[in-house]
Amino acid sequence: MSQSRASDFPIVVEGLRNVFGDHVIHDGLDLTVRRGEIIGVVGGSGTGKSVLMRSIIGLQTPEAGSIEVLGQSITDADDDDDIDIRSRWGVLFQGGALFSTLTVAENVEVPLREFYPEISDELRHEIARYKVMLSGLPEEAAAKYPSELSGGMKKRAGLARALALDPELLFLDEPTAGLDPIGAAAFDKLTRELQETLGLTVFLITHDLDTLHEICDRVAVLADKRVIAVGTIPELLALDHPWIQEYFNGPRGRAAEAAQARAAVLDNSAGRGA
Amino acid sequence: MAEAGCHSPPPLPSPPFSRMTRPMRPLADFTLEQDAAGTSILSLRGAYLVSTVGTVDAALRAIDGPVQRLDLSQVSAIDTVGAWIAWRIIRDSGAAVTGQSEEAHRLIESVSASSGTALIAPPQVPVLERVPARVGEAMYNSRAGLIGLLGFLGAMLISFGDLIRHPSRFRGKALVHQIELVGVNSLGIIGLMSFLVGIVIAQQGAVQLQQFGAEMLTVNLTGRIAMRELGVLMTAIMVAGRSGSAFAAQIGTMKLTEEVDAMRTIGVSPMEALVVPRVVAAFLMMPLLGFYAALMAICGGAFVSAFTLGIPFLTFLSRIQEVVPIHDLWVGLVKGPVFGFIVAIAGCYQGMLVQGNAEEVGLRTTQAVVQAIFAVIVLDAFFAVFFTELGWG
């Protein structure tokens, strides 16, 4: 793979096939993610969104197909070769997956310790503090244990750990699931801000239509064991696929769209007023 | 990643850390000089990234003397860690920034909200204070633990009472399942263990007894010790390790995943659904397993005697009938259910106490096994005296 292709497309999945027993999850799945975009991955329950993410980050060995992340093949690499890519991505698991015996700050320090042991304790503590703050947590939360945090705070703490190494790629697995609407909207805003500030490419699995409308540059739809379409929401709606139509034009989809439209109108009028 | 720097990177030695196999980047570096007007200018040069700043950070901290200007124009790449270092210099020295790229400005802006003083972990109490505090806390908690255990026993007795009044609520299937797990599935390991212990006792006993020419007493030794003590005691230890720990871990995990709470809200009593079947299964299975273990130990003894003492296998077994009084069997059979009850109670009680995190499950499981084995051995000593006083010596 040429360097330029890798730098334009940090994730390239070709012909992916995943099988559990007799159950085929993915068959001939192709997906290309562009640098600097937030790509939303949607699909019904059990269509293998999380399996796709696990395949891309090397937690699941696919039966066939090739996956390249940041120009390095995940499917061909043995474990040691993967490591230098591992320092260039961050993953937020659904429940946060924080190490329960460590405080939030210590959680953030784990990847730093692992990859850059030459960083002094003092600097590492400072890094942990500002990462915690960047994730929208109050700095006092740094000394708390995960069991003392609410669900939304756990996700933010997990995000702080995912951002510990200033990754280029960020994987988010249902980041707004289980958050109240205000918390979910705040998390969306945070994701967008961080993406802009840090220049991240974000791979985002979600069921949240508001998230899709609000922050995703493109949306990939998983159905029939592969990615049936990738594009902006208007592009997807033009496709006339029954599942896509139902997904985006159902009552919830329309409500999310209306909310988006209202927000746009408000922005415009505010712009004119100024 | 935008590698284009504003100057070509100078040739550099390989980085001192080997795990980094990213494309080679220029290392971070800096110069501190004064211009004609006497302004001291700190110029950062090279890449200020998480992967490169580790080596330069200490030197930057060591700068003493004022810095009036911080020049970032020669920084080829920057991430939030580099931005944090720049921000720290600005904050501490009050220097003016020049030559920052738009990216650097944005990143410095985003990290500048951190004060950098928050605690990383809850403050550590000094040892002299911590140890007495721990001991005191343990003492205080042991009272609560005792009350909790009594409460648990009470709740279980109430559940038993309820089940006797409403036998249809009794979970037969769960009981059978637990009987399989506690009893049937452990036959192999308990049998093997007891057989081997029987071999050791007969063989070691024979060596000592031969000195008195009393090797025939090996049969008495093996038979009585297996029936009275070893069979049931070894089984209790095995069941504590195998099933007591499983009870604690299962129930503990169910507490963590809120399954226990879900049961309560549906109106199913966790006592009836989880605890009673396990306790009853252990109560019923322990005497059977203990008896089975005793038989296996005797077989082991007979097996080794056939080789070392020349006592035929079947002769050994028929001698057992003559030398082991029947009350030895009763002693073993009475102790069995009591030990089973204790092991199951310890496991279920500790499982029910789990709350918070996964570490707690491990901690409680260990507690369950330790408490169960300790209680079993203490009670065994009590039983030994008790039955001897009773004339079953």
Outline the fold blueprint.
The complex is a heterodimer of chains A (274) and B (393).
Chain A: H1 3-8, E1 11-20, E2 23-33, E3 38-43, H2 49-56, E4 64-69, E5 72-73, H3 79-86, E6 89-92, H4 104-115, H5 121-134, H6 151-162, E7 169-173, H7 181-198, E8 201-205, H8 209-215, E9 218-223, E10 226-231, H9 233-237, H10 242-249, H11 251-273
Chain B: E1 29-34, E2 40-48, H1 57-62, E3 69-78, H2 80-93, E4 96-98, H3 102-111, H4 127-165, H5 172-182, H6 187-210, H7 218-256, H8 259-266, H9 270-308, H10 313-323, H11 326-353, H12 358-389
Helix pairs in contact in B: 2-3, 4-9, 5-9, 6-7, 6-9, 7-9, 7-10, 7-11, 7-12, 9-10, 9-11, 11-12
Describe the structure.
The complex is a heterodimer of chains A (274) and B (393). With 274 residues, chain A is of the alpha/beta class. Chain A has 11 helices and 10 strands. Chain A has a 6-stranded mixed β-sheet with strand order 6-7-8-3-9-10. Chain A has a 4-stranded antiparallel β-sheet with strand order 2-1-4-5, with helices on one face. In chain A, helix 7 (181-198) links the parallel strand 7 and strand 8 (201-205). The longest helix of chain A is centred in the C-terminal third of the chain and has 23 residues, at 251-273. Chain A is globular and about 55 Å long. The model of chain A has no long low-confidence stretch (mean pLDDT 84). Residues 1-23 of chain B have low confidence and may be disordered. Chain B starts with 28 loop residues before the first strand and ends with a helix. With 393 residues, chain B is α/β, with parallel strands linked by helices. Chain B folds into 2 domains: 26-113, Transcription Regulator spoIIAA; 155-389, no CATH class. The A-B interface holds A 7, 83-84, 87-88, 100-101, 103, 105-106, 109, 112, 115-120, 122-123, 125-134, 139-140, 142-143, 145-147, 163, 165-166, 168, 197-199 and B 1, 16-17, 19-22, 49-51, 53-55, 57-58, 61, 79-81, 84-85, 88, 103, 106-107, 110-111, 113-122, 356-359.
